[in-house]
Amino acid sequence: MGPLSVNGIISENTNLFLAFIIGIGFGFVLEQSGFSSSRKLAGVFYGYDTVVLKVFFTAAITGMLGLLFFSLFGWVDLNLIYVNPTYLTSAIVGGIIMGAGFIMGGYCPGTSFCGASIGKIDALVFIGGLFIGVFIFGIGYNLWSGMYIAKFLGSPKISETLGLTDGIFALILIIVALAMFWVAEWAEKKFPREAY
Amino acid sequence: MSKSKSSKPTKYLNPYVGGVLLGLVLLAANFVSGRGLGASGAIKSTVVTAVTTVAPSAAENSAFVKEFRESHEGNPMKTWLVFEMLGVLVGGFLSGTIAGRLNFKVEHSPKITSRRRLIFALAGGVLFGFGSQLGRGCTSGSALSGMAVLSLGGFITMMAIFGTAFALAYFFRKNWI
């Protein structure tokens, strides 16, 4: 059955329409969770507000378990689901640059659109920066294309790399997340901030 | 969008409930399109479109644009992530309206000026935009969506993003605490 567009169950235009609807859900949940506020987002790096960690890991685990269950029920063919390819060098270096951008700018691309949608001017400026950053990457592409395609490992699953089944890895990730949630709740009590 | 100070903004959603809902949105994206959520891809589409419109000859010679064209047929704005991100603007606006959080403002710590906040926001955006291209996706497309499909690269990028932000937090503490 799923994924619907890959299996030709829905047309390309329906797929794009559903993208818009799913985007509304995405933006709505982000805003409701407080991801429109840079001070709330940055809180995770100082311990005073760990909403990012809680929402992010709960979402990743819910999505992961949902896909595993859907596969189990025969509702989705996991072989047709896109697994992000692994280019080791660019995954690490790109992640480091993004991390620096995160702590300086207080947003990531998705949350900056969310912040801008409710009138945050700092989010709008961050989006302006995003366009400049993408443009610079494009202009100097030849300079870093070597790094961009280095250490290509295919599209391995982390469970395969670790020699575990998907189910066992999922269980371990849930336990790790629960431990992090416990630390997060402790940190919020230890480093309280006034309302902002 | 007026500066309403009369109504008190409502509280945020419980983060674990928000996480489950976000996970269900991510699941829906995979079920419908076979791919997860994303954000930076829509910016890439817009940059490619802008460059192609303003400087067509430069775009023709650009390896970056060429690579994009090879993986995306047709109009670069008619892509899944562009429509999804338009939805994000609508969804965020709806949520902000319901919660009474619509307000034009520069949000910053009382210890820093608006100007300083905006300079750092711009610099952070430039870095994040650049890094998202190198890392083939941002926190949404690479880290969150990658983790849900157990992508090794997704987990590595997630750890690199959060690890670096934690490691640098001390140096930028004045901006936030």
Structure commentary:
The complex is a heterodimer of chains A (196) and B (177). Chain A has 196 residues and is an all-alpha fold. Helix content of chain A is 67%, strand content 0%. Chain A has nine helices and no strands. The longest helix of chain A is centred in the C-terminal third of the chain and has 25 residues, at 166-190. In chain A, 52% of the residues are buried. Chain B is globular. Chain B has helices at 15-33, 40-54, 56-61, 63-71, 80-99, 114-134, 139-148, 152-169, 173-176. Chain B starts with 14 loop residues before the first helix and ends with a helix. The relative contact order of chain B is 0.13. Classes of the chains: A mainly alpha (196), B mainly alpha (177). Chains A and B meet through helix 1, helix 2, helix 3, helix 4 and helix 5 of A and helix 1, helix 2, helix 4, helix 5 and helix 6 of B.
Topology:
The complex is a heterodimer of chains A (196) and B (177).
Chain A: H1 12-32, H2 38-42, H3 51-72, H4 88-105, H5 109-117, H6 121-139, H7 141-148, H8 158-161, H9 166-190
Chain B: H1 15-33, H2 40-54, H3 56-61, H4 63-71, H5 80-99, H6 114-134, H7 139-148, H8 152-169, H9 173-176
Mean of all residue-level pLDDT scores of chain B = 94
Indicate the radius of gyration of chain B in whole angstroms: 19 Å
Structural class of chain A: mainly alpha
Which spans of chain A of ≥5 residues are poorly predicted at pLDDT below 50?
Answer: none
Could you give a short account of the major beta sheet of chain A? none
- What's the number of extended β-strand segments of chain B? 0
The H/E string of chain A reads HHHHHHHHH
> What is the number of helices of chain B?
9
Give the largest chain-chain interface (CB within 8 Å): A-B, 131 and 123 residues
Per DSSP E runs of 2 or more residues, the count of β-strands of chain A stands at 0
What would you call the structural class of chain B? mainly alpha
Element order of chain B: H for helix, E for strand: HHHHHHHHH
Residue runs with pLDDT of under 50 for 5 or more positions of chain B: 1-6
Distance between the termini of chain A: 46 Å
